[in-house]
């Protein structure tokens, strides 16, 4: 009874201490992560389901911490937001991804696309649209090659302002995509109101294929087709899921079955011969 209870509390306290220490350690080193050049982008190919060609890439942020190793974005992006460090990091991501796209347009293929993840905080910031415009002008790329991915949670706040900002970004030529579709704050209402080009169907629905649960997936695909949206299947890991998707109206897929997020060198090694 008592002894075990005390032990458990001590154990929990110790674990909370460790978590707290890790958080502090990460927060402290985040301040210099950019100037230390400890951040980089990994690029996951987006594959055309019909042709099996690489249509483009999604940029995914990576942080190589000196002492703690590779920190996943799901862990450090929320910390960066809390510590008000996120804006320079976000701006760096947009600049770096567009810089790489400009290089690949020269080296690999002139119609490759680049998808960039945009957090709600970033989307709402006053300088966001200016940064986008500035970067594509500087890198001399047409905005139609740049897709901005946002989750449905963007719809929670200020619907009217969100729609207006989306319309502005669309009018500049960028593509807009809803990420992790079907898992967040979902409302069919916003799908009509938002000027979006694409839905990225969350991995949970793709995993359903191998579990014999494709009802929701089929409904999402039908919905996307009715709304004339490009459909991307996320997190495709098995050949059975791939074969199923090939028979649907999904246009593109991403997943470990084809490639995980790659370094620039790995992209060159795998796709570099496409340049000749
Ligand atoms: P996301 O945008 O939904 O990205 C897809 C995540 O699924 C990536 O994890 C990717 O590595 C992983 N993934 C891709 N294919 C497969 C697969 O076949 N199986 C499995 N199990 N996983 C797969 P990652 O890179 O850890 O990123 C996690 C999340 O962090 C992203 O989810 C995105 O929400 C966020 N994130 C990443 N980079 C950025 C960024 O530059 N800015 C912002 N705001 N968020 C970012
Ligand atoms: Ca994404
Ligand atoms: Ca996603
Ligand atoms: Ca996600």
UniProtKB/TrEMBL annotation:
* Name of this protein: Diguanylate cyclase
Which span of the entire protein is present here? 402 to 677 of 677
**Which top-level group of life is the source organism from?**
Bacteria
The organism named in the record is Exiguobacterium undae
List, for all copies, the residue spans of the domain called EAL.
23-275
């Amino acid at each position: 009874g008592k002894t075990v209870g005390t032990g458990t509390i001590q154990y929990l306290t110790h674990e909370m201490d460790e978590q707290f220490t890790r958080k502090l350690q990460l927060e402290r080193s985040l301040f210099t992560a950019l100037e230390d050049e400890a951040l980089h982008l990994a690029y996951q190919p987006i594959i055309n389901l019909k042709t099996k060609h690489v249509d483009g890439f999604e940029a995914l942020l990576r942080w190589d911490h000196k002492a703690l190793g590779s920190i996943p974005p799901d862990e450090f992006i929320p910390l960066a937001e809390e510590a008000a460090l996120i804006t320079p990091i976000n701006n760096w991501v947009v600049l770096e991804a567009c810089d790489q796209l400009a290089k690949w347009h020269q080296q690999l293929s002139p119609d490759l696309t680049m998808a960039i993840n945009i957090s709600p905080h970033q989307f709402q910031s006053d300088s966001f649209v200016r940064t986008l415009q500035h970067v594509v002008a500087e890198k001399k790329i047409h905005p139609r090659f740049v897709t901005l991915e946002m989750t449905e949670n963007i719809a929670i706040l200020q619907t009217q302002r969100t729609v207006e900002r989306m319309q502005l970004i669309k009018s500049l030529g960028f593509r807009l995509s809803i990420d992790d579709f079907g898992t967040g704050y979902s409302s069919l209402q916003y799908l009509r109101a938002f000027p979006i080009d694409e839905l990225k169907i969350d991995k949970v629905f793709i995993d359903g294929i191998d579990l014999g649960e494709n009802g929701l997936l089929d409904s999402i695909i039908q919905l996307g087709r009715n709304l004339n949206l490009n459909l991307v299947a996320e997190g495709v890991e098995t050949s059975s899921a791939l074969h199923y998707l090939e028979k649907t109206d999904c246009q593109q897929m991403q997943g470990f079955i084809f490639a995980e997020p790659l370094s620039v060198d790995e992209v060159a090694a795998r796709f570099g011969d496409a340049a000749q």
